[in-house]
Amino acid sequence: MRTYRRPALALLVLSLAATLVTAVPPVPSAAEGVPVGSAWRWPLAGVPRVVRRFDPPPLPWQSGHRGVDLEGNAGSPVRAAGAGVVLFAGRVAGTPLVSITHADGLRTTYQPVEPSVQTGDRLAASDPLGTLLPGHPGCPAPACLHWGLRRGEQYLDPLALLGLARVRLLPVLDRRPRAGPRARRLSARRRADRAGPRRDGRTPRPGCRPGR
């Protein structure tokens, strides 16, 4: 019995493990269609600390964090993450921000930023676009830059531009075809055959000796 149950048990464990989780591709930004390369830069000097990561809501109208917060110093220059054209520079709902359109339909946003550029200005990567202001809501530091990335109406992780997006584990559905009734009966019969001959459970009639 043990000679055939052990391989079957091992196959069952591997099948369950494969259906629970699987890793996304090594470069998550490629899965999102975000181009990664040396053309992109941090919008703050050096390598700023990420104090709050990208955490989009499951539904567009729900609350979430549609970008990343980078720790900075009030008054420090904010730079374009990549080459593009200034789409907007001003205030939205009282918050000063700058928005830049890039190739591949991407758009980056920077807030709270006192802009030093105007709509229509062309910027290269690392060109200054304004200065960082203090007081970003939810920021644990005195000043934070909220850096966002969109393609159309879809919010993306801006860290994907630098190849630093967080790797996530996603569930995988078991799409193997299920066996029909006939296949299940044949499988049960094969298992019974491997288990050995069946025992005759009939009770002999009185007066009859077994074996005749």
3D architecture notes:
With 212 residues, this protein is an alpha+beta fold. Helices cover 18% and strands 28% of the residues. The chain contains three helices and 13 strands, in the order H-E-H-E-E-E-E-E-E-E-E-E-E-E-E-H. A hairpin with a 2-residue loop joins strand 5 and strand 6 (95-101). The longest helix is centred in the N-terminal third of the chain and has 19 residues, at 2-20. It is elongated and about 85 Å long. The chain starts with a helix and ends in a 17-residue tail after the last helix. Mean pLDDT is 75; it is low at 16-31 and 169-174.
- What percent of residues are in strands? 25-35%
- What CATH architecture of the domain at 24-167 would you give? Distorted Sandwich
Global geometry: elongated
Radius of gyration: 31 Å
Low-confidence stretches: 16-31, 169-174
What is CATH's topology name of the domain at 24-167? Glucose Permease (Domain IIA)
**CATH class category name of the domain at 24-167:** Mainly Beta
Q: What is the arithmetic mean of pLDDT?
A: 75
Largest sheet: 8 strands, antiparallel
- Please work out how many helical segments DSSP would assign: 3
Written as H for each helix and E for each strand, in order along the chain, the element string is: HEHEEEEEEEEEEEEH
Question: Which structural class fits the helix and strand makeup?
Answer: alpha+beta
Query: How many strands in all?
Result: 13
Helix fraction bin = 10-25%
What's the CATH H-level superfamily name of the domain at 24-167? Glucose Permease (Domain IIA)
